[in-house]
Write a structure and sequence with these properties.
The chain is 86% helix and 0% strand. The protein is mostly helical and 76 residues long. The longest helix has 25 residues.
Length: 76
């Protein structure tokens, strides 16, 4: 479990800022909603890592998931 947490933390540190910036630009500067979306994406990542392990290319997975989650939020 510690290896899983370490890998998750590494992915978070490497990608969270760029995901926030991308999301914030798409969400028209709505910081609260952008933060919620990014947290949701990382929650989905954690769940995936628990069941399937880390994605082969975490950055690609994160951005694809971000796009899907943003679309769901804007459809509400």
């Amino acid at each position: 479990m510690n290896d899983l947490k370490a890998e998750y933390t590494r992915i978070w540190k490497e990608n969270s800022m760029s995901l926030r910036k991308c999301c914030l630009a798409q969400m028209r500067e709505d910081r609260e909603e952008a933060e919620d979306i990014v947290l949701e994406v990382f929650s989905l990542l954690w769940n995936k890592m628990i069941t399937d392990g880390a994605p082969a290319n975490a950055k690609v997975w994160l951005y694809a998931t971000l796009k899907r989650v943003m679309k769901q939020h804007t459809a509400k």
